[in-house]
Amino acid sequence: MARPPLDPPPSPQVNRDSYLPQGSRGLKAVTKAKLGYDPVEVDPEDMVACAAARPQAMAAYSVSDAVATYYLYMTYVHPFIFSLATIIPLPPDEVLRKGSGTLCEALLMVQAYEAGVVAPNKHQAAADATHKGHPLESETYIGGKVEALESGVFRSDLPTRFNCDPAAYAALLDTLDADLVHALQAEAGLSPGDCANYEEVKASVAAALSKLRDAPVRDDRPLIYHLDVAAM
């Protein structure tokens, strides 16, 4: 029995909740669904022959694409960009290129300024990107991609190999007492003398850190957290 053909891989684009019909998301289908008219269509296999025999028809096809693109942009994209650039104090080009977390940050900074909340200046990293030996002032942002630090399937019930840094745990051990005292004073308003089991808790934390320092390569079941910056 022959195996059924595999589904084609998904196209490398981000599909938003645009309420478009399932199937083709191309310009023609979007024009029909959103603008309510049928644009000029030419079968891709007939384009070369049509360009040679009926160049006027191919010109009309090209103009139809341009008109559809213009009205889709003016109907849906341009008002969105204008509204976003009105709310967030950034030019349209930066509004489109920055991620949702950065846009939320810019919006919150405006509210903080109006409320008189003191906030530090945002750290600007040194520009070290170059192209053919020339420094780049900025790099083009490419959206629709999620960077995976490590490929694979991760679950909290599957052991995962961890390569830890022993020096980091040694540094935590060196400052353990000061860190615990700061946590007590800053979060609970207490001093170590107010705690009946301070030394016991300190010893248990030190034992756990020493175990991680002495055995940095571990196969443990991970605790998986998903942090959504835009939602926060």
Question: What keywords describe this structure?
Answer:
disordered N terminus; 8 helices; mainly alpha; two-stranded antiparallel sheet; 232 residues; 4 strands
Structural description of this entry:
The protein has 232 residues and is mainly α. Helix content is 47%, strand content 5%. The protein contains eight helices and four strands. The protein has helices at residues 27-35, 47-53, 55-87, 92-97, 100-115, 166-174, 176-188, 198-214; strands at residues 130-131, 134-135, 160-163, 217-220. Strands 1-2 form a two-stranded antiparallel sheet. Strands 3-4 form a two-stranded antiparallel ribbon. The longest helix is centred in the N-terminal third of the chain and has 33 residues, at 55-87. 1% of the residues are buried.
Q: Provide the residue-averaged pLDDT.
A: 80
Shape label: elongated
Pattern of helices and strands: HHHHHEEEHHHE
Largest sheet: 2 strands, antiparallel
> Main sheet: which strands, in order across?
1-2
Radius of gyration, in angstroms, nearest whole number: 29 Å
Strand percentage: 5-15%
Q: Report the helical percentage.
A: 40-55%
Low-confidence stretches: 1-14
Quickly give the structural class: mainly alpha
Number of helices: 8
Total count of strands: 4
Report the end-to-end length measured between terminal Cα atoms: 52 Å
Secondary-structure blueprint:
Layout: H1 27-35, H2 47-53, H3 55-87, H4 92-97, H5 100-115, E1 130-131, E2 134-135, E3 160-163, H6 166-174, H7 176-188, H8 198-214, E4 217-220
Helix pairs in contact: 1-3, 2-3, 6-8
Describe this structure in a few short sentences.
With 232 residues, the chain is mainly α.
